[in-house]
Please model this.
Amino acid sequence: MDILKFLLSIAFILILSSCAKIGYLYEQGIGQAKLIIDARDNQEVLKDQSVSDEMKDKIKKIQTYKKFFYQYWHLPETEIYNETNILDRDAVTYLVIASTRREIKPLSNCFFLAGCFPYLGFFELKSAKKHVKTLNEKGYDTYLRSVLAYSTLGNLDDPILSTFFKYSKYDLAETIFHELFHTILFIKGEVDLNENLANYFGKEMLKKFFKEESEKLEAHFKRLELNHEIKQEIVDSAQELKEILKESNWKAQKKHFLEVTFPQKMKNKCEKLGLKKCWPLSLTWNNATFSAFMTYEKSQDKISALAGKFNGDLRAFFLFIQSEYDKYVEEDIEVSFEDYLLK
Model:
């Protein structure tokens, strides 16, 4: 899809949207168009003396990861990541997640054609902060987080973004495989499942690409495993908080849980795992923060268990998911595809 078609599609969506959403969609449409328009061909960037050698090296690596990805899946390479955009900000977008103060459930944001999302993304930090203020005034808990990687799920020829370069070696490769996976499979209206599938396949592609670096990769996955344990503790704590929110004196109990009980639990968990930096202690926790972490961790174990039935054959597993999705759409099944697939 070229820029003209993209802008026309945005205009069409604006016509069919409510007044409250027009300003948001317009700003995001302009922000997305700017990401594409301001990008330069990789070869031009690689010849630019003002661009650091470190940046150039990562551009070359991303090109290699992309080539490997499409060759593995026996698919022709798309135009994605053929250009690079050197951004003047520390994140490509800023996500705002909201939840009522008595629920650990993200507020759903729905758009014509695009479906519903458990967040709103902003290209401008000031706009994200303004939205957070509005939500807080309406009585919602909110969580604002920066995002380094972003894709249009194959709808546009996404450029490499300079925010990618903040990732370490293995994290960068996994991120590229993750985002590229979105271009070959996307389940409409099911953000959680899309993220969990991309997480799974991104990690598996990482293993295949770096199969000659087994020892270093093992250390990387060990760190991920420890991080997963931290996140599981967060999910377990969210369940505790859900029970607290059912009580008549939930406000006082919630305050004590967030200020005393939960921080102590995380400190104890980090010490048990031998982690010097306990990153959860640097976040401000509320219902929205908990709901954000539950969104991206949910169903990972079930997906891994289902994949185990294919004895490590990643392509066979992927084809199975595709065939099940085709059947799901054809038969117009009422439950979510996540429930259908992971039943």
In short: The chain has two domains: 3-168+184-191, 214-300. The longest helix spans residues 214-244.
